[in-house]
Amino acid sequence: MDVAAACCENCESQKIKAMKKLDYEQLASLPLFLGIDGSTLSSIYETINPVVAPMRKGNAIITSGEECRSLLFLLEGFVQASAAFGKNRFTIYELVHAVSVVEPQCLFGLHTTYTRNYTADSGGYYLRLPKSVIVRQMMENDVFRFNFTNMLSSLAQDTVNRLRRLPPQTTEAKITDLFSRQVLRPAGRKQIKCKMTDLAECVGETRLNVSRTLHKLEDAGLLSFTRGIIDIPYMEKLIAKVM
User: Fold this and answer.
1) Which CATH architecture describes the domain 15-162?
2) Gap between the Cα atoms of 205 and 207, Å rounded
3) 3-state DSSP call for residue 121?
4) How far apart are CA 41 and CA 163, in angstroms?
5) Fewer CB within 10 Å, N- or C-terminus of the chain?
6) What is the DSSP code (8-state) at residue 113?
7) How far apart (Å, rounded) are the C-alpha atoms in residues 216 and 237?
8) Is 34 in contact with 146 (CB distance < 8 Å)?
9) Alpha helices, DSSP H, located in the chain
10) Region of residue 118 (left: phi > 0; alpha: psi -120 to 50; beta: else)
């Protein structure tokens, strides 16, 4: 065996060792499997033989525009989600915490591609279940189908509630509304990469007004900003104060 082949075999061996089978108890605790009786869950566990994959900080997990052919469950650790908006005028970064299901709405419908980039922000593990497995469980298991429908309904209701807001009138409200409509979840820490002039164009205000407003919000402890970066520690507090 030559050196290249030996190295390749060694790498593959390490990759296999890094993979591990999901514990039965972990499967039972996942959002889509909650409430399924023990005998049914045991049968599902043996059928799908779930194997989790490791991740290290900096690993690319999902790329924006990638076709969604499976459901990804974040089991342990943190993943950073990022996406550009406003014709690439600003980019929003936010953390997704375990245990989470990543963009389940992309598995079906007219638009079946992911809307964000997902990069590991820590070590951890994730599980992918192919679309075929999800479809089969939805057809055969009422509880699984209810859990999945409930998850999609919650996402749809959250989107509708954001769209039902009255048009913002103040500069503070315009900025907050712009960002809160685009995030995955309107709570927790968010970082926005944006030039002041681009932000002003997006909210229809002058650069001076936007600068004064950001200083005002910073003085109130609702955000901080440096050149090109806006850091919002608690999105929910900013929304409650401004909207």
Assistant:
1) Sandwich (2.60)
2) 7
3) coil
4) 38
5) N
6) B
7) 15
8) no
9) 3-18, 24-29, 38-48, 131-140, 142-163, 171-180, 196-203, 207-219, 235-242
10) beta
Give the number of other Cβ atoms within 10 Å of residue 164's Cβ: 7
Q: What is the pTM of this model?
A: 0.87
Residue with tokens 């591609």: 113
Listed by start position, the domains of the chain span 15-162, 171-242
Q: Which helix (H) or strand (E) holds 66?
A: none
Alpha carbons 45 and 39: distance in angstroms, whole number: 10
What number does CATH give the domain 171-242?
1.10.10.10
Taking each helix axis from N to C end, the angle separating 171-180 and 207-219, rounded to the nearest 10 degrees, works out to 80
DSSP structural state of residue 102: E
Question: pLDDT tens digits for the chain (243 residues)?
Answer: 454 444 444 444 444 345 677 888 889 999 999 999 999 999 999 888 888 999 999 999 999 999 999 999 999 999 999 999 988 999 999 999 999 999 999 999 999 999 999 999 999 999 999 999 999 999 999 999 999 999 999 999 999 998 888 899 999 999 999 999 999 999 999 999 999 999 999 999 999 999 999 999 999 999 999 989 999 999 999 999 998
Q: Determine phi and psi for 217, rounding to 5 degrees.
A: -70, -35
If phi > 0 it is left, if psi is from -120 to 50 it is alpha, else beta; for residue 131 that is: alpha
CA-to-CA dists, residue 67 to 30, 63, 104, 133, angstroms: 23, 9, 12, 17
